[in-house]
């Protein structure tokens, strides 16, 4: 939605968008995008079994849509089980394909959805241009499936999720710092380390508050969070709710044991919130220690507690980190990402056809 809002969408500039009919944001996207391609895919269950019947229809619609609007390059922002086949069909019909790669590994620990990555990797093999969202992912691609191919890094932008307009409650300097764990609850996200860090700080008698917002199994962590008087919202958070939940807290903590890059960090920066992260994957590229967040010494609970302690104990640090997060958001918005993405796709088109960038359409 951020990219649609950032783009001057009209027939004249040759920039068009496509999205699934059951997308959570479909009603808003229908209003914001001009002449979009709306594809019916599947959500779950029986619909997934019917994918073989729907796929040919979707592919024909894509090719006709592109030909009818003289579109030369397709940019896939988010992988889907169909996109590898779509890339083959598009290239067979003379279209160029650029794919944005979120994950270069097969799956993260505890994330069973990653089992589908072997299907998604087929799209990478078929793409004319590959875009990674962090240098960490680019290095993984360079050393693996994309060895010898052209991979461009375009950092994940500061996500909006409506958070820029969400009210930020006033907090006095003498009030407890509010820490938030946000997002899907999976083993590699490190919620257990966050809870252990909070317990250590509470045992020291430090004043702070904590929240856990996101979908997933809490298991044995639930009673420990209750003893910390944590605010718990254990469910899927809709797009329009994200900003309101983040506005209740001061710092997002992302204690992952493994990561490619973090959408949670990007979301926090999008609403001017600093983030505390562990030094894994592309998160060290997203957070500048002491500027727009803090980077823990390692992935252990003791290191996470030490970073949280810095925010609690150092007067004025939180305000400095907030200011840095706001600057990061201003300099890394969806418009910057879209410009870089279109430049990468246009460069590929120029290399393939000998045209100038001004002559290309995406």
Structural class designation: alpha/beta
What would CATH call the architecture of the largest domain? 3-Layer(aba) Sandwich
Q: What is the ordering of alpha helices and beta strands?
A: HEHEHHEHEHEHEEHEHEHEHEHEHHH
CATH class placement of the largest domain: Alpha Beta
Low-confidence stretches: 163-167, 353-362
State Rg.
22 Å
Characterize the largest beta sheet: strand count, sense, and whether it forms a barrel. Answer: 6 strands, parallel
General form: elongated
Mean model confidence by pLDDT: 84
**How many β-strand runs?**
12
Total domain count? 2
Total DSSP helices: 15
Overall helicity? 40-55%
CATH topology of the largest domain: Rossmann fold
Question: How does this model look, in words?
Answer:
This protein is of the alpha/beta class. It folds into 2 domains: 2-157 and 333-359, Rossmann fold (3-Layer(aba) Sandwich), CATH 3.40.50; 163-331, Rossmann fold, CATH 3.40.50. The chain is 41% helix and 13% strand. It has helices at 2-6, 26-32, 46-49, 51-68, 83-92, 117-126, 135-142, 191-203, 221-227, 242-246, 263-270, 283-286, 301-313, 317-331, 334-353; strands spanning 18-20, 37-39, 73-76, 96-101, 129-132, 151-153, 177-182, 208-213, 231-233, 251-254, 275-277, 293-295. Strands 9-8-7-10-11-12 form a 6-stranded parallel β-sheet, sandwiched between helices. Helix 11 links the parallel strand 10 and strand 11 (275-277). Helix 8 (191-203) crosses helix 13. The radius of gyration is 22 Å and the shape is elongated. The two termini are 18 Å apart. 38% of the residues are buried.
